[in-house]
Specification:
20 strands, isomerase activity, 294 residues, FAH, Fumarylacetoacetase_C_sf, 2 domains, seven-stranded mixed β-sheet, Fumarylacetoacetase-like_C
Amino acid sequence: MKYLVGDTSNGTAVFAVEGAEAVNLTALDAAVGPDLMALIADPMLAESLAAKMQGAPRVAVSSITPALPVAEPGTIICLGLNYTDHIKEGGYDIPDYPALFMRGKNSIMAAGAPLVRPSCSDKLDYEAELMFIIGKGGRHISEADALNHVFGYTVFNDGSVRDYQRKTHQWTPGKNFDNTGAIGPYVVTPDEVPEGAAGLKIESRVGTEILQSSNTGNMIWSVAQTIATISEYTTLEPGDLIAMGTPPGVGHAKKPNPRWLVPGEVVDIEIEGIGICSNPIVDEKDQATVAAAE
């Protein structure tokens, strides 16, 4: 199944995407609710909707404004340094344990929403990443069983403010500016992609300019290994979001000059079989001016 959580004139709803059209699942059954959490909590709910979808009204996907797949994620955990060539371009040694950091809820936003370059820095970078949503929680999850804990896969742009990321050994400041982490718009269930979402083309672009192009098969730590590693130290909960790191080609490593995102551009992150996360870049000062005028 391919899901899209989005805003319509009747509020936020969960849609099942079928090509260029979608079925409003929330309208079919109020138990679905306004995001994916009910479907995550009750796998039987999705099965019960299959028959109801037959002959149900369709709307154009283009008429739906994307919202976050999970409105209030409990934990957002991100991997850094998960592609060898990206590690080399950043000047790091290849680690023997994943570099893990966390994002706060204010730092994430939906596909299509403005990705904000902060007023204090012009060094806003892009990072194309695979993200997955935990379906079944747990602690001490084995690698062999880990993929059974995945609800679905989506696209993530781990927008990073590089000078603030480098201010300390911890990356928290550069990874947590408001509205810099774009998610979505689609979530696909595991049966829609190869096991562990491996072997998928992953790319970032601005217009026709290809910024990154790689394959999720090049990740050092797989989705299953990542779940096993994280659940060793913390309990994963349904609806938690985990991002899998970015391939080479990020802006700060471009030669001879870094390639930062600038207001007026639109950055696209695409993962084969999942979709495109597209966001316009705006300047925080301009956004504040518009908000004050409204």
